[in-house]
C-alpha cells in the first residue's frame, strides 16, 4: 500500500494515497465498504469500484442519506468509509453527522475530500474551511488532518483499526513527502516534531506543514530556532506537545481553515488553560475572495514568508 | 398497574391486542409520572409496535447485537413512552426501569440512545433520520445476502423532511425488498393537521411513484398488521411502504384525534379516566 507516484516535481495528491490504502485494506478486510454521493472520481475511488463493485454504495447526490447510510452499514457489521467533498459531507449533512454518527457513536469513517480552499476559484460554497470547527464540537469523533501521502495512508489505516467515528480530511493540493526519521510511526492523538527548536513553536497540520518546515529553515538562517510540530490529530489534541510548545514561549498555529475554531482555536483552549504564552493563529478570516488556492495562500500569508513573519512578531511579544 | 388482558391461546392477533393495551397503559403511566412525553403519538403507534415485537420480528433480547436479528428503527424518536414500553415488555431491560423515564441520569432519555439501552439501533429524535439509517442497514443485509429484515416506523408529519425522499430514491434504486417502512398516518403533526400544514396526500401515490410497493391498512387492526408485516418480502423486488392509518390518542376518548395531546400531559383526573378506559 505504498503511495502513488509523485504527480509533478516531487509533489503528491493525497487522494491517491487514500485510494491506494483503502483498496489494500479492503482486500484484507471484507467488512470495508465505501459510500459515495456521485463522488467516485473526486474521491479517486474508480479503482476500488472496479475491484469491489458490490462493496461500493453510491447513493447519488444526497449527502444526508450518504452519511446516514454509513451509520446503517455500520449497524449491519460493515466498516464504511464515507467519502465526499469535505464541504458537503460536513455542512450539508451536519445533523446526520451529529445524531447518526457521533451521538450514536458508531464505527463510521468520514473522509472529507478536497478540503480547505482546494477548489480555489469555485469559491466559498465549495471551500471547506469550516469543517474542523464544526466537527470539533463532537467530542467523541477523532479528527485527523494528514500532511503528506505517508501520513494519509497511516491515518486511513489507523481509522480502519479504530472502533468508532473518525473524520479524515484529505487534500487534493500537491504536497511533498515530508522528511522523517527512520522508523517514524503514526498514532491518533500523537503529534510529531519535525524540526527541533527552542525560541518558538509552529504548530501546523495538513497542507501547511511543509510550509512551516520551510519557514523554520528560513528563520534558522536568521538565528531563530523555531520548532515545527505536525498536529495531525485535532481531536484528541496532543496536550503534552502543546505544553512543550508553550515552554518555548511563543506559539504560531497554521492551518488551511478558518482562524475561528479550528486547530488554532483548539490549541488556544489548551494554552490559555495551562500556560498562557503569546500566540498567533494563521488561517483564513472567513469567506475569501476569488482566486486560486495558491493565490489565496499567498494573499493570506499562509506561505513561508508569512509564517516566518508571524513567528518573529510573536517572539517579540514575549514578556 | 393491573395485569394486561391475558392473551388467548393460539390467537396471535389477540395477544398483540393485549400487548398493545399494556403498552398504552404503561406508557401513559410513564408520561403521567414524568409529566413529560408525547402520549398522542405513543397511542397511535402502540398497535404497530405490538405487532412487530410480538408477532413479526425475530430477535433475542439477551443477544441484542445478534448480526442476524431483524432490526427496528424508531424514527419517530419522540414517542419513547411506547417504544421503551415495548422494549421492556419484549425483555430488553427490566420493566421497573420504565419508572425512571426522563429522571436525571436515567437511561430512558426523552429520545432513545443506543448506548444507554439494548434494542435501540440508532439515536433518533430529530425527524427524517430513521429511514436513511434503515436504508443503510438494509443495504448491509443486501450485500451479505442476509435473511434479516429491517423495519422503520416514521410519523407522517415527519415525511415533510427531505432526507426521507433521498432515501426513498436510494432504497427503490437498490430494490431493497428487505426494507419495510411503516408510516404512522395519524394525520396530526405537532401543531395542526398534516393536510393543513404541508399536504402529504395522495401519500400512497407518492411512494408508488418513488418505486415502492405500497399497502394501506388500518393501523389499529392487529390482524391486518400481522398479515401485511409478516408476509415474506422475497421476490417482491421493491421496498415496502405500509401506510398505517391511525388516530393520535387512540384508545382514550378525550385524546382521540386531538392535536393538543401531541405532547400534552395528563393531570390526576385525566390519568385516572384514561386508565378506566384502557381496559
Task: Outline the biggest β-sheet of chain A.
Answer: 7 strands, mixed
Strand order of the largest sheet of chain A: 3-2-4-5-7-6-12
Number of helices of chain A: 12
**Helical content of chain A (DSSP H or I, runs of 4+):** 25-40%
Order of helices and strands of chain B: HHEHHEHEHHEHEH
Compute the CA-based radius of gyration of chain B.
Answer: 18 Å
Low-confidence stretches of chain A: 1-5
Gyration radius from CA atoms of chain A, angstroms = 19 Å
Instruction: Flag low-confidence runs of chain B.
Output: none
User: How would you write the strand order of the largest sheet of chain B?
Assistant: 1-2-3-5-4
First-residue to last-residue Cα separation of chain A: 49 Å
Would you kindly provide a written description of the structure presented here, covering whatever features stand out?
The complex is a heterodimer of chains A (319) and B (279). With 319 residues, chain A is of the alpha/beta class. Chain A contains 12 helices and 14 strands. In chain A, helix 10 links the parallel strand 13 and strand 14. Chain A is globular, with a radius of gyration of 19 Å. In chain B, strand 2, helix 5 (162-173) and strand 3 form a beta-alpha-beta unit. Chain B is an alpha/beta fold and 279 residues long. Chain B has a 5-stranded parallel β-sheet, sandwiched between helices. Classes of the chains: A alpha/beta (319), B alpha/beta (279). The A-B interface holds A 33, 54-55, 57, 59-60, 62, 64-65, 68-78, 80, 95-96, 99-100, 103-106 and B 67, 71, 113-115, 121-126, 128-129, 132-141, 143-144, 146, 162-163, 166-167, 169-170, 173.
